[in-house]
Amino acid sequence: MAFYFKSLCSSSSGNCLLLWTDTTTVIIDCGLGSMKRTRRILTENLPSPQKLDAVIISHLHGDHISYYPLRVLEQYHPSIWLHKTSLKHLKQKHFNGYGFAKLNLKPFTNRKFTVGDLTFEPFQLPHHPDYPTYGFVIEHQREKAVIATDFNYWQNSIEYFIDADFIFVEANHDLDLLERYFNPNSQFHMSNPQTAQLLHTVRRQSKKIPKTVMLGHISSQRNTPNIALREVTATFETNAGKLDFRLCAAPLETAGEVIEI
């Protein structure tokens, strides 16, 4: 049974990632900013938004979840999964006094949980100290996907990336552009060199080759997809490592290609 991925948008202005099989449809994050944009993106990219099984929230920053997408999701009735320590803060930060009586909230812990025929293993990422942030290993039959954005240190998470068939990982900023357009929040995100070193280490320690690696959460002002791709490629070449997998980058504001995992 096939397993697919599609980035619906991925940048500091909004993040929404789609995973599906023949029987299960899941979104990771829904930080789409407005009800109109949320409805449009879900309608354009899902066979039927009403058949969306679950939304998995990595953390509570507004580019990953917010009040207006929650209003739309309440109408579609998927389960909304977030870490148990974030439940109270979701209500405080994003409910805006609205009851959300029909919102189907489900807390996860650090243990695996299942949605349809997909198994999710959360792992904590070092990001902003006020917002517990999680990446996910997603398994379907023999395929393994890893999705991790919004973090600034990878050494303690390397084990989750090993032997993945598909990796979606943040490459947030270029160091030269960060110096030109400084943003203090960049300290909470992965630079191109950090992402390149992570991927080189993963490839060196993995027994099987990933089919595809996609770079995401690319800053619109402090990076470009071409710069990020070039940095990763150069790191492999400098370290005498062969870039023997497909490397691509997610569009910032629009939907990307469908990837079979």
Describe the model.
The protein has 261 residues and is an alpha/beta fold. It has one domain: 4-Layer Sandwich (Metallo-beta-lactamase, Chain A). Helices cover 26% and strands 29% of the residues. The strands form 2 sheets. The chain has a 7-stranded mixed sheet with strand order 6-5-4-3-2-1-14, with no helix packed on it. The protein has a 7-stranded mixed sheet with strand order 7-8-9-10-11-12-13, with helices on one face. Strand 9 and strand 10 form a beta hairpin. Helix 6 packs across helix 7. The chain is globular, with a radius of gyration of 17 Å. The relative contact order is 0.15.
Q: What's a quick, concise take on this entry?
A:
This protein is of the alpha/beta class and 261 residues long.
Q: Secondary structure elements and their pairing?
A:
Elements (H helix, E strand, L loop, with lengths): L2 E9 L2 E8 L3 E4 L6 H11 L8 E3 L10 H10 L2 E5 L3 H8 L9 E5 L4 E3 L2 E8 L7 E8 L2 E6 L9 H4 L4 E5 L4 H6 L11 H14 L6 E5 L8 H14 L7 E4 L9 E2 L1
Parallel strand pairs: 3-4, 4-5, 5-6, 10-11, 11-12, 12-13
Antiparallel strand pairs: 1-2, 1-14, 2-3, 7-8, 8-9, 9-10
For CATH, the homologous superfamily is named as Ribonuclease Z/Hydroxyacylglutathione hydrolase-like
CATH class bucket: Alpha Beta
How many independent structural domains? 1
Structural class: alpha/beta
* Biggest sheet record: 7 strands, mixed
Estimate the mean pLDDT confidence: 95
**Strand fraction band?**
25-35%
